[in-house]
Every structure is written in C-alpha cells, then in structure tokens.
Amino acid sequence: MRRSCIISCGSYLPEGIMTNDDIAKIVETNDAWIQQRTGIKSRHIAAKDQMTSDMATRSARVCLEKAGLTGSDIDAVFLATTTPDQTFPATATTVQDNIGMGDRGFAFDIQAVCSGFIYALATADNFIKSGQINRALVIGAERFSSLLDWSDRTTCVLFGDGAGAVIVEADDTAKGSKDDRGIFSTHLHSDGAHRKLLCTDGGSSTTRTVGYVRMNGKEVFRAAVTRMGEAITEALDANGLQPSDVQWLVPHQANKRIIDSIAEKLHFPSERVIMTIAQHGNTSAASIPLALTVAVEDGRIQRGDLVLMNSMGGGFTWGSALVRW
Ligand code: UT7
Question: Please, what CATH class does the domain formed by 182-324 belong to?
C-alpha cells in the first residue's frame, strides 16, 4: 500500500517583530485587550522588500537541507498562499526556480486562505497516492501584513507573516495498518455562502487592487469553533480513533480562545495542543506548518506520533489531516 509520509519540516519567520504595544501606537488598542481576546503577544512582520516567495523559499531550503535533498529531488511544489508576489504567475513557480528544480515537475499555488496548508497537503497526498509523483514540497507562506488596513483595530492586531514547509514522500512499504507512518486521511470542506464574512474588499476582477481584510469577527469565531471541531470528529471517526489515541493536535492558530474551546469540548488536554499564536499571531496558510516545525524542533512531536491538524478560514473553508509522523 502506498502512503504519503512527511519526512521533513522547516520554517522561516521574518526578523521584524511587532508587539501589541507597537500596534497600540498606531490604533486605539492595548496589550491587555489583544492578549485577553486573542492570546497574541507579538507577530513577525516582513521587511518592506521581503516577498512571500522569499519566505517560502527560505522555509523550503531548511526543509530540503534537513532531509538531505535538493530541488532536483522534488517532483512538485504546492504553495498555499493568499498573498502571492503577483496576481500571476503562481508564486510556487518562483520557489521552483529558487530551489533549483529547473523544468523538473510542476508548481502551482493553492488558495484556501487559512485552510490553504491542509488543502495543499491533501493535494500532495492525492498526487502521491495516484502514483503521479513521488515527492512534493508543500508550503504555507503569507505576507498577510500586506492585506491589513492599519486603521482597522478589529483586524490589524490579529495577523502576522511567515512560512512553513514540509516534504511529503511516497512510501510503498505501508501495510495499511494503524501503525504505518504517513497521512491516514485528509478531509476538505467549503461553503461559499459565507464568503462575505471574511474576505478582502478588493481583487483583480473587481477593484483591480488587492484590497484589505474585512471580517465579521463574531460570526467567524462561531463558525471556526463549530467547523474546526467537526473537522476533528470527522478525522477521528474516519479512522476509528478516539482523541486519546492522538498525541498532538496542531490547529490553525487564529485565536487562543477558539483553540481552547475546541480542545475542551473534544477532550484534548492543553499539554497535547500545539499553540504558537502568542508569538506568531494568525499567519493564515503558514500557521500550521510553522506550529508543526516548532513542535518538531523542540522535541515534542516524535516519529511515530499521531498528529491531527485542523483549520478553518475564509470561504468558508475547513478541513483536517491526520498523520502518523
Ligand atoms: O483565521 C481565520 C479565522 N479568523 C478568526 O477565526 C478570527 C475570529 N474572530 C475573533 O477571533 C474575534 O471575534 C476577535 C478577536 C476578532 C474579536 O473578539 P471579540 O471578543 O469577538 O470582540 P468584539 O468584536 O465583540 O469586540 C468587543 C469590544 C468592542 O467594543 P464594544 O462595542 O463592546 O464597546 C470592540 O469595539 O472590543 C472592541 N475592540 C477592541 N478593543 C481594543 C475590537 N477590537 C479591538 C481592539 N482593541 N483591537
């Protein structure tokens, strides 16, 4: 049986750090409100000339180096982003060039906002399982600060920039058992009826600008708790597992209160939930691979652990990926 295994992960965060106090100098807000309502203490903000492709490439290179591979070992690049360098070509093609893949394989962007990494991982898994490719680079990279209206305190305090990547590789020795390594399942969902609750107020076919983030925070909060919770239950049920079988929950980092409420409802003790929101803020498609990398590098996620990732974002989009590391 063929499974897709995550063999390496890496990340990149821009040097610039913006604290809540820094934001309080720009809009009427304060550290106490932001921490209490979101769990965020600071976020990384890209330098003026730093593009999404730069951050994506840095994370990809870390990943390749850790795996002892080069661009010529990669068959495809799936880059989840809402903040491409340009409207076209796909930012993934810039990364393909930067890592020296030449004309090998293919590269494209995936747009599912904060669920982008789960969508990209599912895409890579299915390309691998179908036998079309053997090894993929899956990246979530965002320069979300480009989309912020720095006069809107309801959104500008929430987001940050960064990139995270994983290498996914075919393993044809899997037995089809619960002890296998690799991706056990991915589940993707969307419901466009809610697209106006979290969106930008511009785009190339409407205003011909990229626009700024606009969000109905309360509605999105409610939907995030419901949909991210459903995503967990769906993944566990599909694999005949209980929350206690899963070592690590790695949720999209949108709001500490969202994550706490899901974990409590589904009986995941907080020690088994990876939380990076305090230092990263919400980095959209980059948040899950950034969190994964932190937990792998500090030794919490170990080979053989079951890791459950779940997300929710604009569209709405939501989903999960269950992986034995
Ligand atoms: O990644 C994809 C998904 N994104 C999310 O999941 C985000 C979901 N939403 C949220 O995380 C929360 O709704 C927010 C953090 C955005 C807002 O928290 P809230 O508890 O829903 O606050 P609220 O919007 O109900 O606002 C409460 C009060 C309001 O004042 P009044 O009307 O009670 O006087 C706001 O004007 O807080 C005020 N407020 C602020 N005060 C200080 C709103 N933003 C700020 C701010 N600083 N930055």
Answer: alpha beta
114 belongs to the catalytic site: yes
Q: What is the mean pLDDT of each run of 10 residues along the chain (325 residues)?
A: 97 98 98 98 98 98 98 98 98 98 96 98 98 98 98 98 98 91 98 98 97 98 98 98 96 98 95 98 98 98 98 98 98
- What is the atom index within ligand 1 of the atom nearest the CA of 282? 1
The domain locations on the chain are 3-171, 182-324
Whether 282 sits among the annotated catalytic residues: the reply is yes
Q: What is the DSSP string of 33-75?
A: HHHHHH---EEE---TT--HHHHHHHHHHHHHHHHT--GGG-S
Model pTM score? 0.98
Q: Which residue has the tokens 């004309």?
A: 103
CA 70/CA 73 separation, integer angstroms = 6
| Rounded Cα gap, residues 111 and 125, in angstroms | 17
Q: Which of 252, 255, 280, 310 is catalytic?
A: 252
Whole-number Å distance between alpha carbons of 306 and 241: 10
Provide the token pair at 168: 């996914």
Is 256 near ligand 1, meaning CB less than 6 Å away?
no
Q: At the topology level of CATH, where does 3-171 sit?
A: Peroxisomal Thiolase; Chain A, domain 1 (3.40.47)
